[in-house]
Automatic annotation (TrEMBL):
GO terms under cellular component: ATP-binding cassette (ABC) transporter complex, substrate-binding subunit-containing; maltose transport complex
Keyword Transport: yes
Entire-sequence positions represented here: 1 to 227 of 366
Keywords: ATP-binding, Nucleotide-binding, Sugar transport, Transport
Species annotation: Marinomonas rhizomae
Highest taxon listed in the record's lineage: Bacteria
GO molecular function: ABC-type maltose transporter activity; ATP binding; ATP hydrolysis activity
Name recorded for this polypeptide: Maltose ABC transporter ATP-binding protein /trehalose ABC transporter ATP-binding protein /sucrose ABC transporter ATP-binding protein
Domain (ABC transporter): residue spans on this chain: 4-227
Length: 227
């Protein structure tokens, strides 16, 4: 539940390549923002900077009006869903979702409630006792989403979460994410993809990145019907 504001944000990697030049964007609480653009334009870099996994070279990142450039990832109230699910292979679905709450010393009863609620939302209840290897790719990605949900983050980040799935699962999982958006209307969601259909179906606003800058910002209608 948070506003995210980028002001004059820049990224220069150690090899002196300027990947992002001057990014200015005001993301409102509850918005679903989709970053699109060609491969290599800096979408993942931008997401990793918001999550704190990558340093911001210049400019400021604010979450709810607080500059968080130097706030460690775990304290930013952000959860990230990656392209590769990064589930713990030796843990059940339940334990994969419960783990970060166990680390945070959440009570057993609260953990159980959170995990079961997320599992219900993502239709994972029948699979709670399974290991990741006994799940389809789409189910695994739903577990990764569930693991993010139980942390009750203020901001969700998605880095091409559907790109490892085959076409049918991609459609189904896209619908799950659309449902997630509907059931958590106060959560801010920032999503990276190179898939135009994903952008059109999920976004409140699409941000088109190109050559290190924001080229266009607008609703799906504005960008794709009346470009
Ligand atoms: P996208 O997600 O849009 O495909 P990325 O953010 O992954 O783009 O990468 C943007 C550019 O930054 C690419 O040219 C890539 O090669 C470069 N890049 C990414 N990570 C690093 C790094 N750790 N060091 C140097 N260059 C990098
Ligand atoms: P913590 O330090 O709170 O135990 P984790 O061990 O869960 O955090 O993850 C380490 C870091 O990686 C965190 O700071 C978090 O930002 C990020 N991270 C890794 N996986 C996720 C995920 N599924 N959702 C949110 N953040 C994650």
């Amino acid at each position: 539940m948070a506003d995210v504001k980028l002001t004059n944000v820049k990224k220069i990697y150690s090899n002196n390549v300027e990947v992002l030049r001057d990014i200015n964007l005001d993301i409102k609480q509850g918005e679903f923002i989709v970053f699109v653009g060609p491969s290599g334009c800096g979408k993942s870099t931008l997401l990793r900077m918001i999550s704190g996994l990558e340093e911001i070279s210049a400019g400021t990142l604010e979450i709810d009006g607080v500059v968080v450039n130097d706030v460690p990832p775990a304290l930013r109230g952000i959860a990230m869903v990656f392209q590769s699910y990064a589930l713990y292979p030796h843990m059940t679905v339940y334990d994969n979702m419960a783990f970060s709450l166990q680390i945070a010393k959440t009570s057993k009863a609260d953990i159980d409630q959170q995990v079961r609620k997320a599992a219900d939302m993502l239709q994972l209840t029948p699979y709670l006792d399974r290991l990741p290897k006994a799940l389809s790719g789409g189910q695994r990605q739903r577990v990764a989403i569930g693991r993010a949900i139980v942390r009750r983050p203020k901001v969700f980040l998605f880095d091409e979460p559907l790109s490892n799935l085959d076409a049918a699962l991609r459609v189904a999982t896209r619908m799950e994410i659309a449902n997630l958006k509907d059931s958590m209307p106060d959560s801010t969601m920032i999503y990276v993809t190179h898939d135009q259909v994903e952008a059109m179906t999920l976004a409140d606003r699409i941000v088109l990145l190109s050559g290190g800058d924001i080229e266009q910002v607008g609703s799906p209608l504005e960008l794709y019907e009346h470009p």
